[in-house]
Write a structure and sequence with these properties.
The complex is a heterodimer of chains A (about 240) and B (about 300). With about 240 residues, chain A is of the alpha/beta class. Chain A has 9 helices and 10 strands. Chain A has 2 domains: about 160 residues, Rossmann fold; about 60 residues, no CATH class. Chain A has a 6-stranded mixed beta sheet with strand order 6-7-8-3-9-10, sandwiched between helices. The longest helix of chain A has 14 residues. Classes of the chains: A alpha/beta (about 240), B mainly beta (about 300). Bound molecules: adenosine-5'-triphosphate and magnesium ion. The site of adenosine-5'-triphosphate has 13 residues of chain A, from helix 1.
């Protein structure tokens, strides 16, 4: 479904951030990427989507076996790829309803998606996306906007950041809903429980490289114990 | 109607949908093609040397809840429209004016408007002015002189957010007497070679007079928007506020000059300005939901101008 091949990426006029990153996500899978702060996870997410600010030096991103590396963001989106940002945009003046509706087939479905991420559309539909949503609410709106698109590949960059502990269980359900609606999911997170709860496989990223891949429990342990620098202690 | 011209079609891009009974005056190029008065509302007009002169007078105490339509425009590619208008709202009267200015096919169009507006004691006028200048824009010069009498209220809302603007020069001078109120807002989207100069000046001359000016503008890809909002507080207890929010995209340019003058110790005036660019991340997020870059920018600008 999604294939990342030998990706080497630098910040525009800046240092190399990703070096030789390869991974894949199959249909119906939830695949986690874990790794310490600054290891390059968000850079990977944004490069997959085609965002500005980075330069692809080598490698490729394929969707259903076809390269999308030269396509602009919206063309990738129209082929079923989308991204939930780690720190979602604020959209001064735009309402929650308008934002979630952008990729939705109709208003009813957009409302349903809000409902599924735990936001009552009656309360949230006409609210502004800007300053007056809390961080956690913005993350939920972001997930609703992704869900509304019924994507075929959804890259979720730390959807758990800023979500309270009590809601974490819901978050697993939300991610599974996105999958059940037809998406293969690439889930970037620091949350061990979330990975163990929903992921089928996991990758460990360190300093811009993939250093481990496999069973989510094991990879997460590996990450937690040594940050990926040592051979896996839980093997 | 004139020569098979459908007035409703000409003004549709500005949201015009009046019932046939609604009082109105419709000016196409240099001809007044339709006038409908109502009890308490007198409308007179004449054309001289290509200039249309129109006067609207609301008689004392008459209150109009439904809007009166003032439609001006040129439905063809080329033309000149010069209008000199006087609007008089007599004591205690109130009226809401929907002004539609439409030049849907303009290629070479000049529109000049001079308006004198007189609000007598305790009267009120609300003007909603929606413009559409087609895909090429027009040359527009408008000068408003507004006299807001004691206890009177003047609400003005100007909007051009679709298509091109062209070259626009807009000057509005307002004088507010004791207890009078001015609220004026403008929302403008300028694109490509559009050049917009807007200047609104309010003198608060009577005690406790109030004014608020609000400008929202977007300058996209080479367009230029310059805004001057000036309030002068000349009497005790007057209050005034100027607010500007402007954004640019690409090599658009904006400038905003709030000018506040105080010549009475009991006056209080404030201003706020926020100038910035459309955030790349916002555009890219909307693109990740399937919008093209242009569609994304349009949606963001629309939200900002409305918000
Ligand atoms: N535009 C840029 N210019 C220069 N350096 C950048 C740029 N973007 C990212 N970096 C650097 O690249 C590295 C990887 O950043 P990235 O945001 O991808 O990390 P991350 O794994 O998502 O971290 P976190 O867990 O904190 O979200 C960091 O050291 C960061 O400072
Ligand atoms: Mg990150």
């Amino acid at each position: 479904m999604l294939e990342v091949k030998d990706l080497k990426v630098a910040a525009e006029n800046g240092p190399v951030i990703l070096d030789g990153v390869s991974l894949d996500v199959e249909e119906g899978e939830i695949v986690a990427v874990v790794g310490p702060n600054g290891s390059g996870k968000s850079t990977l997410a944004k490069t997959i989507m085609g965002c500005s600010g980075y330069e692809v030096l080598e490698g490729d991103v394929l969707l259903d076996g076809e390269s999308v590396i030269d396509l602009p963001i919206h063309e990738r989106a129209r082929r079923g790829l989308t991204l939930a940002w780690q720190d979602p945009a604020r959209f001064e003046g735009l309402t929650v309803g308008e934002y979630v509706s952008v990729g939705a087939k109709d208003e009813e479905w957009a409302k349903e998606c809000l409902y599924r991420v735990g936001l009552d559309p009656k309360e949230y539909w006409d609210r502004e996306c800007g300053e007056n949503l809390s961080g956690g609410e913005r993350k939920r709106v972001e997930l609703a906007a992704v869900m509304a698109m019924k994507p075929r590949v959804a890259v979720l960059d730390e959807p758990d950041a800023g979500i309270d502990m009590a809601s974490m269980k819901d978050l697993g359900e939300i991610i599974k809903t996105i999958k059940d609606e037809g998406a293969a999911v690439l889930l970037i997170t620091h949350n061990r429980d979330l990975v163990e709860d929903v992921a089928d496989r996991a990758y460990l990223m360190l300093k811009g490289e993939i250093v481990d891949e496999g069973d989510p429990k094991r990879v997460v342990q590996h990450c937690l114990v040594c940050g990926g620098t040592e051979p896996c202690p839980v093997d | 109607m004139s020569g098979g011209l459908n007035v409703d079609d000409v003004f549709a891009p500005t949201g015009f949908h009046a019932s046939p009974d609604a009082p109105r005056i419709v000016v196409i190029e240099d001809k007044v093609v339709n006038v409908k008065e109502a009890e308490g509302l007198e409308i007179s007009s004449e054309t001289e040397d290509g200039t249309v002169r129109a006067e609207l007078r609301v008689l004392p105490g008459y209150e109009f809840e439904e809007p009166v339509h003032f439609c001006v425009g040129i439905p063809w590619e080329r033309g000149v429209q010069r209008i000199i208008t006087r609007i008089i709202v007599e004591e205690g009267a109130s009226i809401s004016l929907m002004s539609h200015c439409s030049f849907p096919r303009a290629e070479d169009v000049l529109h000049e408007m001079e308006a004198e507006i007189i609000l007598h004691k305790d009267s009120s006028l609300k003007v909603t002015d929606v413009h559409y200048h087609g895909e090429n824009g027009v040359r527009l010069r408008a000068v408003y002189d507004v006299d807001v009498g004691p206890g009177a209220e003047y609400d003005s809302s100007f909007k051009i957010t679709r298509g091109r603007i062209g070259e626009m020069e807009w000057i509005s001078r307002m004088r507010v007497d004791e207890g009078g109120v001015v609220r004026a807002d403008a929302a403008m989207k300028a694109v490509d070679e559009d050049v917009v100069d807007v200047e609104e000046v309010v003198r608060l001359v009577g005690e406790n007079a109030r004014a608020s000016l609000e400008f929202k503008a977007a300058a996209i890809d080479g367009a230029e928007v310059n805004v001057v909002g000036e309030i002068s507080g000349e009497a005790d207890g007057v209050r005034g506020h100027v607010e500007c929010s402007e954004i640019i995209k690409g090599d658009g340019r904006v400038s905003s000059v709030p000018k506040l003058r105080v010549s009475h110790p009991g006056a209080r005036l404030t201003h706020e300005a926020a100038l910035g660019t459309i955030e790349r991340k916002e555009v890219e997020t909307l693109m990740a939901r399937g919008l093209t870059e242009e569609e994304a920018v349009d949606l963001l600008v629309e939200a900002m101008l409305r918000g």
